[in-house]
């Protein structure tokens, strides 16, 4: 499937974008008449916008001083209240914001500062970061993940560093296994498309392909933008729908499938770090009463979607879920799977369940 | 030792810029046979400042947590608190010197499998619960205790790659191989970093590889092996390489970490530092 995304960035890079409200509602796909139709065009991350604004160095310095003061005033308040970022981290983010938004150069022998957003907007953005606890990644519109820079926006889960490992797990499995490397893969609930793009790059040019699915139209559009940015339109196919629904035609044919489904128990949602709980899509986080609703659904479908010898990897909430899933797959799906393993993330938390279809 | 370290908290300086190493060379001494031995201590927290290789302290102390997922080495590999790395004038009496070159020649993946990886200590369940962009990575090479870290990139993956490349540099700087000076002939990787003025460098060696080339570390390790074998004497090493003393000095001064390592050796031999 080819996505009919706007081919040229310039068409949605119009300066007028800067003056439109930054936060758009993107959750409904059928808006009622009065509000303007909701655009599913992905927002352009800061670092890809043209540097069309200018500022004097003293004005920029003034903004930076103000932003530093605001960040410093946070101290460890957020950290103490909900394990949020402290000043040190916020100041590091401020440097990254400058990296993405400011371009310094020499023009006609004079030092020039060019901005990718107006100075007024920089004030607004940093205020949103501190006062609304808007995630930094939504402020700059991107996340650095593995060797990739992925576009993200509200309505799409920000890919986590832990999840980077799933791509390595697939890389290990396909090494020397032509049958898997050249096969068909799926990333269910792809969000920004992170895992799907990571896997597509690991599969290389051997003819392997990846289907990435998501229920959310915003996610599909953002994932499509990212897939195109990495030139993988011919390798990654996006399909809208819930879990296995859009995969009916490939039943029993997948060489592998992976997923980072919502796995947080519903009770924990209200206590989440504000950046996560207030801003990221609940549909990508809330896994039901014990956080296992979607994981169990995926486990149940694994045997029929995978071809013999096919591989799966799921991210989970931790040790408890991992153990439960492994036991479940050993007992309920008796004899369907082999080499079931629990794999820890870099912090040592039991994070992933992997296995093979017999 | 390895078991005790796994999962324990480490305090270290966390730097936003180039942090090279927390390995301490706590002493360079002479063995009875006349071989120089560099003693690395993997866990001493406060080295004499002059001995620390290149430590920048920029921000507050940070807690680290080591991953426990690297079961690949036999238990006894890191069972000594001290790790002796020797170089010998006479290739015959050296011990455990097979590793140095071997580590450098390992693929990234092999090298990684010899490492314990530490990330910022995360309290709580992590994963979807968390958004903190703490992407710093710290690698501890278990066979040698050498530690490399990187925190300047926004992606953990990229920090891991930088830490790994720094680890290679540190291994080149710190792990010595025995050199037999009788009939010494420089290995190819060393010839490649020599300037063309070298009389033993033949045209098939190709262009000179500079410090910015990732292959420079291989030559750097071989050069340090030779310098240790001649007790830090630049003029003597220069003879083996077909160079003038001045030309070899310039090569050593062209890379900061190489210069520091050579001057550290020369200091231990009561020689003047190169400038």
Automatic annotation (TrEMBL), chain A:
A GO term, aspect molecular function: peptide chain release factor N(5)-glutamine methyltransferase activity
Enzyme Commission number, as recorded: 2.1.1.297
InterPro entries xref list: HemK-like (IPR004556), RF_glutamine_MTase_cyano (IPR052663), SAM-dependent_MTases_sf (IPR029063)
Name of this protein: Putative peptide chain release factor N(5)-glutamine methyltransferase
Highest rank taxon of the organism: Eukaryota
Pfam families per the UniProt record, alphabetical: PrmA
Catalytic EC class: transferase
Keyword Nucleus among record annotations: no
Swiss-Prot/TrEMBL GO biological process terms: methylation
Extent of the signal sequence: none
Segments for region (Disordered): 22-44
The keyword S-adenosyl-L-methionine appears for this protein: yes
Keywords recorded for this protein, A-Z: Methyltransferase, S-adenosyl-L-methionine, Transferase
From TrEMBL, chain B:
Pfam families: RF-1 (PF00472)
GO terms for MF: translation release factor activity
InterPro entries referenced in this protein's UniProt entry, alphabetically: Pep_chain_release_fac_I, Pep_chain_release_fac_I_sf, Prokaryotic/Mito_RF
Domain of life: Eukaryota
Domain Prokaryotic-type class I peptide chain release factors: 113-172
GO cellular component: chloroplast
Entry's family note: Belongs to the prokaryotic/mitochondrial release factor family.
PANTHER family, alphabetized: CLASS I PEPTIDE CHAIN RELEASE FACTOR (PTHR43804:SF6), LD18447P (PTHR43804)
Protein name: Putative peptide chain release factor class I/class II, double-stranded RNA-binding protein
Higher taxonomy: Eukaryota, Viridiplantae, Streptophyta, Embryophyta, Tracheophyta
């Amino acid at each position: 499937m080819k996505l009919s995304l706007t081919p040229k960035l310039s068409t949605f890079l119009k300066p007028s974008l800067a003056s439109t409200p930054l936060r758009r509602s993107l959750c409904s796909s059928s808006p009622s008449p009065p509000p303007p139709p909701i655009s599913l065009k992905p927002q352009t991350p800061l670092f890809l916008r043209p540097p069309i604004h200018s500022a004097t160095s003293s004005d920029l310095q003034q903004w930076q001083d103000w932003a530093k003061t605001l960040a410093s005033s946070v101290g460890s308040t957020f950290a103490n209240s909900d394990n949020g970022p402290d000043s040190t981290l916020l100041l590091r983010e401020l440097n990254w914001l400058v990296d993405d938004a400011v371009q310094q150069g020499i023009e006609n022998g004079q030092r020039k500062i060019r901005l990718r957003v107006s100075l007024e907007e920089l004030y607004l953005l940093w205020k949103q970061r501190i006062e609304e606890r808007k995630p930094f990644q939504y402020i700059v519109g991107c996340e650095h993940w593995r060797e990739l820079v992925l576009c993200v926006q509200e309505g799409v889960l920000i890919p986590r560093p832990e999840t980077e490992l799933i791509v390595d797990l697939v890389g290990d499995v396909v090494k020397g296994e032509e049958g898997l490397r050249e096969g068909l893969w799926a990333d269910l609930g792809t969000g920004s498309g992170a895992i799907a793009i990571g896997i597509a790059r690991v599969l290389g040019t051997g003819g392997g392909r990846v289907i990435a699915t998501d229920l959310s139209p915003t996610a599909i559009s953002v994932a499509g933008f990212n897939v195109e940015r990495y030139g993988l339109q011919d390798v990654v196919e996006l399909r809208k729908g819930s879990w296995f629904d859009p995969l009916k035609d490939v039943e029993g044919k997948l060489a592998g499938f992976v997923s980072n489904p919502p796995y947080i128990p519903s009770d924990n949602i209200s206590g989440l770090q504000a950046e996560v709980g207030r801003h990221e899509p609940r549909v990508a986080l809330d896994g039901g009463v014990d956080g296992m609703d979607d994981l169990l659904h995926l486990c149940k479908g694994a045997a029929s979607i995978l071809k013999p010898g096919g591989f799966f990897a799921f991210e989970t909430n931790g040790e408890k879920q991992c153990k439960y899933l492994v036991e479940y797959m050993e007992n309920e799906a008796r004899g369907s799977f082999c080499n079931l393993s629990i794999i820890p993330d870099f912090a040592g938390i039991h994070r992933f369940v992997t296995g093979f279809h017999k | 030792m390895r078991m005790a370290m796994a999962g324990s908290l480490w305090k270290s300086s966390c730097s936003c810029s180039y942090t090279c190493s927390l390995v301490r060379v706590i002493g360079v001494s002479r063995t009875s046979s006349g071989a120089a031995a560099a003693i690395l201590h993997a866990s001493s927290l406060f080295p004499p400042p002059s001995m620390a290789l290149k430590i920048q302290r920029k921000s507050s102390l940070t807690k680290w947590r080591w991953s426990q997922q690297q079961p690949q080495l036999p238990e006894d590999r890191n069972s000594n608190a001290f790790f002796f790395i020797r170089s010998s004038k006479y290739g015959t009496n050296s011990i455990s010197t097979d590793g140095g070159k071997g580590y450098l020649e390992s693929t990234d993946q092999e090298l990684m499998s010899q490492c314990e990886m530490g990330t910022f200590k995360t309290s709580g369940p992590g994963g979807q619960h968390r958004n903190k962009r703490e992407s710093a990575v710290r690698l501890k090479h278990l066979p040698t205790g050498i530690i490399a870290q990187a925190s300047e990139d926004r992606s953990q993956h990229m920090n891991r790659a930088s830490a790994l490349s720094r680890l290679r540099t540190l291994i080149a700087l710190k792990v010595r191989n025995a050199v037999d000076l009788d009939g010494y002939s420089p290995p190819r990787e060393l010839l490649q970093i020599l300037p063309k003025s070298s009389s033993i460098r033949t045209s098939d060696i190709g262009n000179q590889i500079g410090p910015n080339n990732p292959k420079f570390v291989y030559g750097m390790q071989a050069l340090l092996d030779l310098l240790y074998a001649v007790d830090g004497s630049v003029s003597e090493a220069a003879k083996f390489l077909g160079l003038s003393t001045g030309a070899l000095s310039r090569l050593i001064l062209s890379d900061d970490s190489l210069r520091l390592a050579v001057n550290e050796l020369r200091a231990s031999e009561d020689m003047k530092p190169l400038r």
